[in-house]
Amino acid sequence: MSLLVVGSQIPVPAAATLRGHGFGRVQRPDGPASVLGIGTANPVNCMRQEDYADYYFRVTRSEHLTDLKAKMKRSISQKSAIKKRYFHHDKKLLGAHREFLDRAMPSLDSRQDILASAVPELTAAAATKAIAEWGRPATDITHLVVSTYSGAHMPGTDHRLASLLGLAPSVPRTMLYMNGCSSGSAALRIAKDLAENNRGARVLMACAELTLTMFRAPHVGVIMHLEF
User: Is the pTM of this model over 0.85?
Assistant: First the structure.
């Protein structure tokens, strides 16, 4: 989970520059967008990558799939650059939601109910750090851009995050859902455009994911889920 505060650091000229430059020119800053603060946050449950395969097949009661477990260790655990994995879910949560492990049971509603609060809370933790590094109050944020693959709620993560941070209701919000691995790049592009086309803009950009969205028991024919 990462947060950026984006804006232009070029001083704002006097309003008198309106004459001779055109309205559009005055609306834009004189310099490119800059990153003013960065904050990150992770779920509390952490596991080292080399221990993950044993944990995953144990907690999903799939230790009989020895060949698949060996393939996961060989192709994912050993060859990826991942050092640690962070999770919102733990053994207690998985025990209370059998549907997360049983592929025959519907689980989307249960996952969405958990993500509805967990994603905004994680996002707010990172945002607080980014705003602190920036050194100005959250009320100075002028725009909010949020991207996530974890849920598709209405009101969305952007609305809940704005409430947690105490942003003004008038702050324009942009919510990006289901952009997959490119979601961070899409959010950065929008934040950059907002900062470079609105004089004095201070854009808070958030990109948040929780693997609870895809976590489930392994299946021989669906290797992709082993990554989560």
Answer: no
